[in-house]
Amino acid sequence: PEQAARMKKLQEQEKRQKVEFRKRMEQEVSQFIQATGEPRRRFQPMNKIERSILHDVAEVAGLTSFSFGDDEESRYVMVFKKEFAPSDEELEAYRRGEEWDPARAEERRRLRELAAQQEEAELERGPAPPGPPNDYKDKYRHLIGSDAAKAAARTMEANKAYGCVPVANKRDTRSIEEAMNEIRAKKRLRQAEDD
After folding, report:
1. Kind and range of the H or E element at 42?
2. What is the Cα 37 distance to its own chain's centre?
């Protein structure tokens, strides 16, 4: 009985704290709604129950709210006025733990647009002609100089001793059949001697 009474007291205390917290959040949210130059407000990190209460208060007030932060201790709620609802890019920035900078985002968007236009222009131009994109000599010019490759190309001649051996250089002039017949004859001779 004593434990049950203590539990009931704790539950009532928790309930009272939640009601007080909700009232406090309702006041803060209504101040935020009346603040003209404030499109969004970031609240202090809070636990899961408090966050859910704040989300509920924001929803009732007609605001948009999101939670950010990686671990339970640092998670916080951000409340946005409907006309300043965050873009996906803005949400991504907060999720990465960055501050949202509209000017930087606009710059990024312009760069992306420019890249897309360039890509489109390249596609219209058609495929590049086959072949290497640059001359290997340009890449190695600092090592070989500009005319070394041309000089090397002129001095190269086919090596006469490479590849086919001219008949004049062969030591053994017999055909394969003659050589095989000679080997067989030697083998027969050896077998005859052994017998």
Report:
1. strand 40-42
2. 38
Residue with tokens 């495929």: 127
**3-state class (DSSP) for residue 35:** coil
pTM (2 decimals)? 0.50
Contacting residues for 63 by C-beta, under 8 A, at least 6 apart: 29, 32, 33, 79, 80, 81, 82
Domain made up of 1-100: CATH architecture = 2-Layer Sandwich (3.30)
In tens, the pLDDT along 159-179 reads 665 666 666 666 777 788 888
Q: Which residues neighbour 182 within 8 Å (Cβ) at sequence distance 6 or greater?
A: 174
Residue extent(s) of CATH 3.30.1370.50 domains in the chain: 1-100
